[in-house]
From TrEMBL:
Keywords: Amino-acid biosynthesis, Arginine biosynthesis, ATP-binding, Cytoplasm, Kinase, Nucleotide-binding, Transferase. Residues 27-267 form the Aspartate/glutamate/uridylate kinase domain. Belongs to the acetylglutamate kinase family. ArgB subfamily. This is Acetylglutamate kinase.
Length: 291
């Protein structure tokens, strides 16, 4: 029997039923960033997905980065961007730009896109209500600690304000800037910040959107995506990973070891990848599970 278009659509909705049941009330922390955040149509689609999750009874929280946007702002100001071990070397001057771009620009853009659909999104910085407290982080290169400026390592998360917003029917949108008890502000990698928040909120899932299909088994060869791996398998792989995948997979590992049952890396270039991952039987991207 040939299915009509309407029947195919009904089939897709019914496929979502067990997942709607399973994830009703679940807190999902979504890291949105970088290169998945450049295209306008994808950005609008991302906002729709977040609102869809909200209406479907999940509790979405967005933590965002904005590395490419920071780099172009620094470039316009004639400030050079350098990275050590995947982290931006952040001078006090660069830190002002990081804060301005992440909290003042990227955060506002995402809040605006979500709020096209209703009064849901509330933007926050990790500095607000002491959400993220950080200390100065040193990168390690060839076994030696290297000063990378005002880059922060999160040592404490107070998720109270985020929880209160969710309980109030809002969708928190959080920039990855942290405060220190020393009075400094710190630039935190957004993957790392998302993992720390997922653990503190006891989230059911951490989803990291990026600009590749998932973790490739033999990078730079992109013919095989690892669809599932345990935390132990990932820990073994960690020393072999490079560039932007290091903080991403480290974030998945931290989340799962911290009690989050599932952490995913998904292709943010695929329209509605969030919905495909959460509400279809196949799932997509790379999933990390405990064990
Ligand atoms: N094993 C791997 N699998 C997939 N991507 C990898 C791998 N190793 C390194 N990469 C690189 O990591 C990049 C993702 O990190 P990054 O550019 O920091 O992402 P984002 O901008 O989404 O935060 C990919 O575009 C790819 O170039
Ligand atoms: C310390 C550090 O490197 N911070 C990042 C923060 C933004 C970020 O993580 O953005 P993406 O997720 O878009 O890469 C940076 O300055 O680029």
């Amino acid at each position: 029997m040939r299915l009509t278009t309407a029947q195919t659509k009904a089939g897709a909705l019914i496929e979502a039923l067990p997942w709607l049941t399973r994830f009703h009330g679940a807190t999902v922390v979504i890291k949105y960033g970088g290169n998945a955040m450049i295209d306008d149509a994808l950005k609008s689609g991302f906002a729709e997905d977040i609102v869809f999750l909200h209406h479907a009874g999940l509790r979405p929280v967005v933590v965002h980065g904005g590395g490419p946007q920071i780099s172009s702002a620094l470039d316009r100001l004639g400030i050079e961007s350098t990275f050590t071990a995947g982290l931006r070397v952040t001078t006090p001057e660069a830190m002002q730009v990081v804060r301005m771009v992440l909290t003042g620009q990227v955060n506002r853009d995402i809040v605006g896109l979500v709020n096209r659909h209703g009064p849901f999104a509330v933007g926050m910085s990790g500095e607000d209500a002491r959400l993220f407290t950080a200390v100065r982080k040193h990168a390690v290169v060839d076994g030696e600690p290297v000063d990378i400026g005002q880059v922060g390592e999160i040592v404490k998360v107070d998720p109270g304000a985020v929880g209160a917003l969710i309980d109030n029917g809002r969708i928190p949108i959080v920039s990855s800037v942290a405060r220190g008890d020393d009075g400094e502000i710190y630039n935190v990698n957004a993957d790392t910040a998302a993992a720390a928040l997922a653990v503190a909120l006891e989230a059911h899932k951490l989803i990291v959107l990026t600009d590749v299909e998932g973790l490739y088994a033999n990078w730079p060869d992109d013919s095989e995506v690892i669809d599932l791996l345990t935390a132990d398998e990932l820990a073994t792989l960690m020393p072999t990973l490079s560039s932007g995948m290091v903080p991403k997979m480290e974030a998945c590992l931290t989340a799962v070891k911290g009690g989050v049952p599932q952490a995913h890396v998904l292709d943010g270039r695929v329209p509605h990848s969030l919905l495909l991952e959460i509400f279809t039987n196949e799932g997509i991207g790379t999933m990390v599970m405990p064990g």
